[in-house]
Amino acid sequence: DGGITQSPKYLFRKEGQNVTLSCEQNLNHDAMYWYRQDPGQGLRLIYYSQIVNDFQKGDIAEGYSVSREKKESFPLTVTSAQKNPTAFYLCASKLQGEAGELFFGEGSRLTVL
Amino acid sequence: DQQVKQNSPSLSVQEGRISILNCDYTNSMFDYFLWYKKYPAEGPTFLISISSIKDKNEDGRFTVFLNKSAKHLSLHIVPSQPGDSAVYFCAASFSFSGAGSYQLTFGKGTKLSVIP
Question: Residue B102: what pLDDT?
């Protein structure tokens, strides 16, 4: 079945460590996105990529980095520069072109101890 | 500056009654709107959308209404069921963003509780 797979589902890390969250999709979608959800804050855009080897910062990109070497993959690295990394992270994808819905993965819960 | 606003953090409704979730937006350039449903620790799932050329879109128990002059949209769920209990997010976009820039702007969500 086609879909978006995020891993790991839960992740614990010590403060100061970099962490990479995986996002893989087999929907043949061109565009991929990373959102962060905090209680009462809704979904805020971190980074997005419309095509391979290209990506743009979203509203809260500071302390994060991404890469898009393959169409299917869009990993997110939470660096030690991110001041409040504990959150629920959501990856999404969409066909390029006209307006439409984003398809989301199941999310990754990162807790920094 | 929050461009998409859901001013009610929570809503409780009796089973079988109508649930009305509201959303306001400030950017008049938005012309495509979506509603997502989200359970705890899961990704959001798409519910229904509406283009600004319409003022109503219906899909089963779910209807979205758009009032462009008021920059307001609402989601009606009739009849409400306990399984509808979730957080509902309103989102907005520009239907044509040019290459490299399509994105959704989300509200903060409304937690709906349907009481049996």
Answer: 76
